[in-house]
Amino acid sequence: MKFDRSKKPSPSSEISFKMPSQSKFSLNNGLDIYFVKKKELPIIRLNVIINAGSKFDLTNKKGTSNLLTMCIDEGAGKYNALELSEQFDLLGAHLSLNCNNDTIQITLQTLKENFNEALDLLGKILTEPHLTEKDFDREKSKIQTQLKQLSDDPDYLANTAFESILFGESHPYSFPVLGLNDNIANINNDEISSYYSKFILPSNSFIIAVGDITKEELKKNLNEHISVWEKGNADFHVDKVSNPDKKTVYIVNKKDAVQTEIRVGHHSTGKKSKDYFSKHLLNTILGGQFTSRINLNLREKHGYTYGAGSSFNYYKDDAYFGVSTSVGIENTTNTLNEIFYELNNIRNGVTEEELSFAKSSIIRKFPLNFETYRQVASHIIGKVIYDLPDDYYDKYINNINSVSIDEVNEAATKNIFPDSAMTVLVGDKDKLLEQLKDDNFGEIKVVD
């Protein structure tokens, strides 16, 4: 068969999507389970989500949650750290642990035939972690080494400085998940054990299960291995008092740097805001894809950078809008001029062509977000954490399609605020100050 490659292919028919069927049940200890049957492969994936992220770290103990995450699988039950790792390897199972601002997440993926054995090991990690002084000292040293390495990483410095200044020192999201070096030095193993006892509870957690198993089998196996996880009282919340948005430039000095890491942004409304889908389309046009206004301006038109973008960033208890890029230090002011031009210009409205392209881009990629076991689990995690409706993903495409151009333009005026956007620059202070000789971008401050 021959194709006429001079003619552009016609788009396929309208895309529809149906979220895989999901059920919910509770174990004998009250632990909530969200289950999706997926039987393309003989695999089962469990995500244990614990409401114990770094936002709960105590003052002067920033990094406690992450340190516990690193220690909790370093030996459990009758196995030391090496033996436990070998047991998972023998089963062909994969265990991973992650800590973020909101949660600790423990993920197990295993073959169906080895599910019971792997689940038994997971149960031991949750209920019988060793948390020994020796393992604690080793993991603590790893984090201190990592923080030392990151202290020279301009991307990490820009991201942590931006959130620290944006939220302010009294806000739980102000501090990096890894913690602060001087804080890490103050944390002892008894505090890790106390954090475990306080937060690692079934009443403070939920499990996402995706795989080739029936609901009845899953419930039986989980009750057998996980219900020994004892109940406890858990109703943890955080107080958040953010810094007010103010147009200011903060310079983080990185002597002799030839590049500048740039972050520009301000606070925003959360994921459950009524105009969420309008905001999503707005950002897709502004800086959320390769053909966005910001990237075409900075990369294609001016050649200042290899890539630039913007996003609305959502935590469970807060959110913000941000623009990020990295440019040659000599182009810092020129880049800022273009970023603020685009932030102001988007408030004047988008075109029907831009909106149509943004909708098509989001909708045509959307079903691909649910192909793997990890993807399905990840989206259900988000639905639970953000307390989204059960039919959220089923109605997603329709909600995108139904957004009008007037709603996108209204979202721009209600969610993009260039006159109160702060800027963080990581680069050579002296070279940056030479360029920033006026107050176009706000008051200039040099910070540690």
Primary descriptors:
448 residues; alpha+beta; 6-stranded mixed sheet; 12 strands; 40% helix
Brief digest:
The chain is an alpha+beta fold. It contains 16 helices and twelve strands. Helix content is 40%, strand content 19%.
Task: Summarize the SSE layout with pairings.
Blueprint: E1 22-26, E2 32-37, E3 43-50, H1 64-71, H2 81-90, E4 94-99, E5 104-111, H3 115-127, H4 133-150, H5 154-167, H6 181-186, H7 189-199, E6 205-211, H8 215-225, E7 248-253, E8 259-267, H9 276-286, H10 293-301, E9 308-314, E10 319-328, H11 332-346, H12 352-365, H13 373-385, H14 396-401, H15 405-415, E11 422-427, H16 429-435, E12 443-447
Parallel strand pairs: 2-6, 7-11, 7-12
Antiparallel strand pairs: 1-2, 3-5, 3-6, 4-5, 8-10, 8-11, 9-10
Helix pairs in contact: 1-4, 1-7, 9-12, 9-15, 10-11
Can you describe what's shown?
The chain is α+β, with helices and mostly antiparallel strands and 448 residues long. The protein folds into two domains: 22-225, Cytochrome Bc1 Complex, Chain A, domain 1, CATH 3.30.830.10; 248-447, Cytochrome Bc1 Complex, Chain A, domain 1 (2-Layer Sandwich). The protein has 16 helices and twelve strands. Strands 1-2-6-3-5-4 form a six-stranded mixed β-sheet, with helices on both faces. α1 crosses α4 (133-150) and α9 packs across α15 (405-415). It is globular and about 65 Å long.
